[in-house]
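tool=predict chain=A
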Amino acid sequence: MEKSPTKASPVKCESVQAEESRDTTKMPSTSNADISSENLNNGLNSSCSTPATNIIHNHDFSGGLHMWHTNSCDAFVVSEKAGYPEGLSAKLSGRYAVITNRKECWQGLEQDITDRVSTGSTYTVCAWVRVSGNQGVTNDVLATLKLEYQEFSVSYLFIGRTSASIDHWEKLEGTFSLSTMPHRVIFYLEGPSPGIDLLIRSVVVSCHSPSQFDSQGGTGPFFDGDENIVQNPRFDDGLNNWSGRGCQIALHDSMADGKVLPMAGKFFGSTANRTDNWNGIQQEISGRLKRKIAYEVTAFVRIFGNNVITADVRATLWLQAADLREQYIGIASVQATDKDWVQLRGKFLVNGSPSKAVIYLEGPPRGTDILLNNLVVKHAAKVPPASPPVIEDAAFGVNIIANSNIIDGTKEWFPLGNCNLSVANGSPRIIPPMAGDSLGAHQPLSGRYILVTNRSQTWMGPAQMITDKLKLYLTYQVSAWVRIGKQATRPQSINIALGVDGQWVNGGQVECSADGWHEIGGSFRIEKQPAKVMVYVQGPEAGVDLMVAGLQIFPVDRHHRFRRLKLQTDKIRKRDVILKFTASDSTTLVGSMVKIKQTENSFPFGSCISRSNIDNEDIVDFFTKHFNWAVFENELKWYWTEPQQGNFNYKDADDLLSLCTSHNIQLRGHCIFWESEAAVQSWIRALPKTDMMKAVQNRLMGLITRYKGKFKHYDVNNEMLHNSFFQDHLGNEIRANMFRTANQLDPQATLFVNDYSIEDGCDARSSPDKYIQHILHLQEQGAPVGGIGVQGHISSPVGAVVSSALDKLGILGLPIWLTELDVSSENEHVRADDLEVMLREAFGHPAVEGVMLWGFWELFMSRDNGFLVNAEGGLNEAGKRYVALKQEWLTHTHGYINEEAEFEFRGFHGSYQLQLVTPSKHKLVNTFVVDQGLDPLVISINF
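tool=predict ok
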């Protein structure tokens, strides 16, 4: 359920002070008037330290206002980069939050700490605060708790106060404890008089005695990390607390004549008489799970019986809400064997408050039993943030391939397999275009190439060892010219590959014909130290000659490209603005101060979201603060809305639609159909052609008429370049027919194609050229294709490769959207760099009109190591980078009205707030919108 805004306290300033006089937790304020702002800058952290148990998320506003809420006022975060409020820039440095437009003294900044506090513990509060307003006037700043109870009663608990002024940062201290646990606990800072801005530098709320949490039996997030919520985990108490899921269970101290023994303890449990893969061993853990807490699951498992030697064993969590809505959470899977115990490990988080919860193991084929020893489910340990990788002597733009230009024959090269290498002349003498912008100083190519003949396997080709030339965490661009021999009777796929300790890594693919040379480009990155790395070129069918020229592999300087992208972004995402002020006496306006603050960039930045996400108010808060578009992860897909024929489920989609509508978030519809057979329900696959055609028409009619006008976009038939279920069963015209019918039912919706591996050069089936041919073919059949969806599930992105794909697609004149963007790296700093590459390339390209992330919260993404926000709400480096880029793409400026009663600036497209202050201190506040356009935008403002 969506988190409702915290209601403002109905008390006045005097009432708050009266509450203070009755509260015994009042602490004397500590004056810091003798601390200079310079010294304070250096000593803030030491005088108000941030302990490991600080329960305030984003305590220093490094993540913007993430996790913070305003209480009927406005707030923003400022820093050296963003600029400081007028009158304070000379005295302040660092980062802090400004709470402004305060109409009442109780208005301020707050954070929900319900799931981070418990009864019986004492908490210490330390915050650095300041005010901005009348010079020399002090104002009290108060720290307060708002306590909401189930019966809707509300009380307020005073924590501490300090007298703050415009001249110094002041330290606000206090303590509090709770004798009973309310339904919600809100911490907030308030107090200054109306019209006075409140400034907050940092907030720390820590548990005075952390050991007290250990005696709470797991109350709050600091319960004993060793506490296992699974009862009888080692079967020491027999089969108590355990049961079979669709099968029987048994207790053992050994099996197979003593060949199978417990991994730990004296006993283990097993299934018996399994008749389906979902049968398994389970335990109900209702009442022991806490919402919004990340749990780590570990277990030792193996399989036995039915002559199966290896099978997938999965840990799954089944949840049932009070309204009987069910949810299945896949926790972990492991390839188990009948030879030894293996460890199964995973994590999960529950967003809502289920009435029932059951954890169980499943997976192997029927007749094969699951053996379980020591299942542990406990609060996941906090993972310390990763350090940015240290890379020395990166040598950006320097090719690591020896004898790349084939000057010394085939020296440094060797044939992979029983093929022959020789040197020939006649290849291109120019560097492939994708490499030209990134490669350092280089000579023209020699015109020589390696000719590979006598190929008897597709993997045979030229190879070279590059183990000692690679550096960890550097992103490498791959580039070459390739060609195939005339023996080919059809186009052939060529791949530049790396063998990294025997594992295949894709460096780029292209489809070639025998009529000329083709550019191949891609990228890769190595994040773990390998013992051996070989690069090789492969792909054509046996008997087809392969030609390779000018292979380049070089590390890319991403920040060098960022500088150029910033200039390009300024050209296409900004506009010159002239504000013309008029008044009865225009001379009174000359010299007036103008402050311009952009409140929202109009460029669409969105994310996918799922129904289970909206039960977590922290996820909803981040989503509604940082995205203005949304797409449902699964809830609009056919297998979700009609899992069995005639059994419809639109409730989940309706719930998500309601949330987005209430926050003015625009919607993409994903997807009406999906060509992948794995995503097609069994009941559809079983239909004869005539009935399947009728089902398709019913799907179009039912979905689009229900939501007519609600979704701005539809992905009509997902991933047509890679799959063809409906085309195979219903004929070549079905795809165009889907588009035509969708357009007839909702003419206002833009209809998209949507596919993956378009932008990274790694899949010959979905190159930009193939995508263009596909779109043109649909249009020739009468399909009203209105937009191009580039999914963007990408690894180690290189800007030049991505931009080249976007340039090619741009010739169609259709809007391009990155529809499912995610990047992945275990190191969050590298992940942040990857995300920045993609966001800057998209925002800096004139054909791109929107970006959708495919998730942002840990444990709720389809891809590992792609999240921006940790499971329990902490913003990681990738999240901070996203927030910083969104802030960079907002325009804030100030200055004075000139003699023509005008003020000029250049700003990003979007919504703005203007504040004008005349020399006589009269004020005007106004809003305006800067839309797209090439000519300067002239806006008249009457004073």
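Residues 1-46, 84-91, 209-225 have pLDDT under 50 and may be disordered. The longest helix spans residues 689-706.
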